[in-house]
Amino acid sequence: MRNKILILSLVVVLSISFFLPIKTNAQTIAEFEAEVTKYTKELQEKQAKVASNDKEVAQIKEKIKSIEKEIEQKEDEINELQEEIEKNEKEIERKTEESKKIIEYYQLSNGDNAYLEYVFGADSITDMIYRASVVEQLTEYNDNLMKELEDLIKQNEEKKVKLEQDKKDLATLEENLKKEQDKINADTASIKETMPKVEEQIKAAKANVTYYKNLGCGTTEDIQACQYRIEQARLAAARASQTSSGSVAIGSVPSTNGFYRPMEYGYVTQWYKGTSHMGVDLSSSNKTIAIYPIANGVVFARFYDSYGALVVKIRHNYNGRYIYSTYAHLSKWTVSVGQSVTQNTQIGNMGSTGYSTGPHLHLEITTCDWNTGGGCTWYQYQRSTINPTSLIALPSSWTNR
């Protein structure tokens, strides 16, 4: 009985996971047209923010270069000082040996007998005075030598400690500046990632209005639902016509319930954060690893974004509505627009094209797309994102799809 309850619970959980609610943002043609004017100002402000960030990042980079140069100079000073210390230590060793021989020869450590033997062993008074003077001078020389060397060692050690502290302070400053740079870059990236230029957005929005009017959608009808209904009806009619004539039925966007990771193995470098980061960033030890669709679908768009990133978009049929997956920063693409794909079709390779700090895949999932036929403007697109982890199992790292 307990096992049956457990199995039943598992079935319920799996059923829920297969039919997760997708947030939809219904729009009519009238609302769509009104939005074109509404969001243009906001996008222009974002562009100004990007320009401001770019300028600040450039200034921070210059500061970092200056700090790195200062660190390099300090390291040179440390190396020179180390060489000087090593040289002095050799001199200390040599002088110490010399001092030992003097002491051993003239005795200053075993009482006055050896001193007297040396002094009174003179052949004459003049020689005796000379010998006494030599002993005093050598003793004084030895004392001064040891004091100078001890002072030099102390100074060198103090300088070495100070330079090491300076180096740590500079490294800390550099780390702080880089953190600030990363913060600004992240802010900029959240704005720039897959973001089309304002002119492109307005052009695409107008093209979308025309597309849906020509499709036959009413001015007060949900354009995405309208599009799905009309396209599915046309496909059904086309299949019926081709089947009756003996032709092979045309393809369509295949229905899907299962979702897969877009690469064989990898790890997450940045999680979904809504409009501040509209997808997840994924990377791998293989910086050119093959990229696959997260599910069956049709290639909806393929283009370079306004910052030079290679982007592929795929349309999926999920629970009777279209959703879209976006793959950005590819090093190359291997599919064409209109091509049907499965989760095992390679669509490209991971790369670092466009606004990117290193090789990775930026993956977005949305309920609409700003390109023609996608059903929304860029403004609405940003708010139609789905957290990829709600559809795809994405641990911090993985070794299979």
Structure at a glance:
With 401 residues, the protein is an alpha+beta fold.
Q: Would you report the number of β strands? A: 12
CATH class category of the largest domain: Mainly Beta
Label the overall shape: elongated
- The CATH topology label of the largest domain is Glucose Permease (Domain IIA)
Radius of gyration over all CA atoms, rounded: 39 Å
Protein topology:
Layout: H1 2-18, H2 29-106, H3 113-120, H4 125-192, H5 198-215, H6 223-244, E1 266-270, E2 280-283, E3 290-291, E4 297-304, E5 310-318, E6 321-330, E7 332-333, E8 340-341, E9 348-349, E10 361-366, H7 378-382, E11 385-386, E12 397-398
Helix pairs in contact: 2-4, 2-5, 3-4
Q: How would you explain this protein's 3D organization?
A:
Residues 1-21, 108-112 and 246-251 have low confidence and may be disordered. 54% of the residues lie in helices and 13% in strands. It has 7 helices and 12 strands. It has 2 domains: 62-187; 195-398, Glucose Permease (Domain IIA) (Distorted Sandwich), CATH 2.70.70. The longest helix is centred in the first third of the chain and has 78 residues, at 29-106. β4 (297-304) and β5 form a beta hairpin. It has helices spanning 2-18, 29-106, 113-120, 125-192, 198-215, 223-244, 378-382; strands spanning 266-270, 280-283, 290-291, 297-304, 310-318, 321-330, 332-333, 340-341, 348-349, 361-366, 385-386, 397-398.
